[in-house]
Hints:
Blueprint: H1 11-47, H2 51-78
Amino acid sequence: xxxxxxxxxxxxxxxxxxxxxxxxxxxxxxxxxxxxxxxxxxxxxxxxxxxxxxxxxxxxxxxxxxxxxxxxxxxxxxxxx
Length: 81
């Protein structure tokens, strides 16, 4: 069943298996945590950030609104209203 060199129930191979499993899962957890921290930091920067980023966000919203207004205008003109 298991393809280890030592017998399956040998305490040493068992310990290796446990250690390996723990190490794998632990490194994965650490990676996930660091990723989460990074994204959280990015999100924090994006939402609160400096006054500069806040104005940039405001500009982006304005641009978005203008874009929609233009689209509406074009539709109205196209329909000959």
